[in-house]
Design goal:
- The complex is a heterodimer.
- Chain A is α/β, with parallel strands linked by helices.
- Helix content of chain A is 38%, strand content 24%.
- Chain B has a single domain, classed as MetI-like fold, CATH 1.10.3720.
- Chain B has 10 helices and no strands.
- In chain B, 74% of the residues lie in helices and 0% in strands.
- The chains are: A alpha/beta, B mainly alpha.
- Chains A and B meet through helix 2 and helix 4 of A and helix 7 and helix 8 of B.
């Protein structure tokens, strides 16, 4: 659990982060979203003490984070930055082994961990371990950056615009991979992004920041349905709102009884994808297929449009 | 075809070694350059001995200059040393603008004749390229990489040793290369104040109007400079192999 209590950061007269209080529950993803200059990156960097707060306290699992020296704190917190920041003079394996090396892990344990992470990120250790970062594609570099951050098994992962340098198709894949990884490892993630779409997709809770203040900190459905201020409403974008709402829930929750013709939709797909498939096929309803391949019912345009309406 | 430059360098090295070990073999080559039956090959000392002394002098001066210049550059790029940047820039620049001949002239009364005044002149002259290159290498690191080094929990010393210096190494090596080559050429004038260098051969040739001596002294220094320059270039390529040959 991460607790920020009345955290502020001033540089001279300017206050870039003002009195932020928020709690990130364990094993969840919190997305901090805001425009550039909103203070979101400064807020993130205060958690691993790359920036020292001017006021307030930050507690990790109940312990003030100033109780250990900064470099030791950072070895326990994974950190992923935009443009990956891989060490160009070190191989992929050496990059991933950075924190284990600092912690003095035995060679065999480090090697096993590096291979495990490379495999987890769909990079064949035999092929990639000895390569230098410049020999990788953008998507591969990004994955190695996340693998490096996770090497010592941190409970907390901080990500600053981790997908900002990727093209849209690779970004969608990287986002999906992060979600399944987080579900599997249970790591608490705090992610900074300027993209509300990404925040809605990844965040269990979203903090909207503007001019150093957190305007609203709530689950995505709440942010979409009840924006706290006109700024939040503008950020969410009224035109896209119903579709974003649908994108939060799987088709499984919108299944109705009945048998219909047509190409089946996976129960794990989002309701937004289902609506798109319905509109594109021109049918009022399509069958829904479970992960085991069994048809469990149908999903309808009428049913989805009710769910896309503003929640009461 | 790619082996050709390497072969040419090996041939130059073999030729130089042969000339230093058995100078009399080359007597017929230099004979036409002499007049009135003057000796064609330097005969007032061992060419090999002079060359080794020359190299030793340059190596010692460059090692000293490297140690001081790199240490200074590291100091002024740390947060606590930043205020010394203008001062150390000025000091190092003075070392470079002062002509080596003037340093020799000033140093002789203080430390006497011999190798010491030459060592001082070469040391001062070699500081600037190494200092400036180290400074460039350490201040042009990618901000994302520096941020990542901090974020992974490296201490300041670990960042310097594991990230900053290895990344700056190719640029630092280029600075040392420049200093060595300048030093090799400049060391010859050290013989005017009785330092044992290949300059002795050139000066003897000038005094006795013997073109053969001047030429052999010049050729030895020139071949040494080219070979050492290439050696450092290869070393820099090894230090920067991670970049895929872009730097």
């Amino acid at each position: 659990m991460i607790e920020l209590e009345h955290v502020s950061k001033r540089y001279g007269e300017t206050e870039v982060v003002s009195d932020v209080t928020l709690t990130v529950p364990p094993r969840s993803i919190a997305a901090i979203v805001g425009t550039s200059g909103s203070g979101k990156t400064t807020l993130l960097r205060m958690i691993n003490r790359l920036v020292e707060p001017s006021a307030g306290t930050i507690k990790l699992d109940g312990v003030d984070h100033r109780s250990v020296p900064p470099h030791e704190l950072r070895r326990r917190i994974g950190y992923v930055i935009q443009g990956h920041g891989l060490f160009p003079h070190r191989t992929v394996a050496q990059n991933i082994a950075t924190v284990p090396a600092l912690l003095g892990w035995p060679r065999a344990k480090t090697k096993a961990r590096v291979d495990e992470l490379l495999t987890l990120f769909q990079l064949d250790p035999a092929e990639f371990a000895a390569r230098y970062p410049h020999e990788l594609s953008g998507g591969q570099q990004q994955r190695v950056g996340v693998a490096r951050a996770l090497a010592a098994g941190p409970n907390l992962l901080l990500m600053d615009e981790p997908f900002g340098a990727l093209d849209p198709i690779i970004r969608a894949k990287a986002q999906a991979d992060l979600l399944s990884l987080q579900a599997r490892l249970g790591t608490t993630i705090i992610l900074v992004t300027h993209d509300i779409e990404e925040a809605v997709l990844l965040g269990h809770r979203i903090a909207v920041m503007d001019a150093g203040r957190v305007l609203q900190y709530a689950p995505p459905s709440e942010i979409l349905a009840r924006p706290a201020t006109p700024f939040v409403e503008a950020l969410v974008g009224t035109g896209e709102r119903p579709f974003k709402l649908l994108s939060l829930k799987p088709v499984a929750e919108a299944v109705e009884q009945g048998i219909v013709e047509g190409e089946p939709i996976a129960a794990s797909a989002t309701q937004r994808d289902a609506l798109a498939a319905l509109l594109w096929s021109g049918r009022p309803a399509l069958p829904v297929q479970s992960a085991e391949g069994v048809i469990i019912g149908k999903v309808t345009v009428a049913g989805l449009s009710k769910r896309a309406a503003r929640p009461e | 075809m790619r082996a050709l430059p390497t072969l040419a360098r090996l041939a130059a090295l073999a030729l130089l070694a042969a000339f230093l070990m058995r100078p009399d073999w080359f007597e017929p080559v230099f004979r036409p350059l002499t007049e009135n039956g003057a000796p064609a090959i330097y005969n007032q000392g061992s060419l090999l001995g002079l060359t080794l002394a020359h190299l030793g002098l340059v190596a010692l001066a460059t090692a000293g200059a490297t140690a001081l210049a790199v240490a200074l550059a590291i100091l002024v790029t740390r947060p606590f040393g930043a205020e010394f940047l203008p001062l150390s820039r000025a000091l190092v620049n003075i070392g470079q603008t002062f002509p080596p001949v003037a340093v020799l002239a000033l140093a002789v009364p203080a430390v006497g004749f011999g190798a010491t005044p030459t060592l001082i002149a070469l040391f001062l002259y070699g500081l600037l390229p190494i200092f400036e290159n180290t400074l460039t290498g350490l201040t042009t690191l990618s901000p994302a990489v520096v941020e990542a080094a901090k974020g992974t929990g490296m201490t300041a010393t670990q960042r310097l040793a594991r990230v900053e210096l290895p990344l700056a190494a190719p640029v630092i090596l280029a600075g040392i290369r420049l200093s060595v080559v300048i030093g090799l050429a400049t060391a010859t004038i050290g013989s005017t104040v009785a330092a044992k260098t290949v300059g002795e051969v050139i000066i003897a040739g000038l005094l006795s109007n013997n073109l053969a001596f001047v030429l052999q002294g010049g050729l030895i220094v020139a071949v040494l400079a080219v070979l050492i320059y290439d050696g450092f270039t290869a070393l820099g390529r090894v230090a920067g192999r991670w970049s895929g040959g872009t730097s």
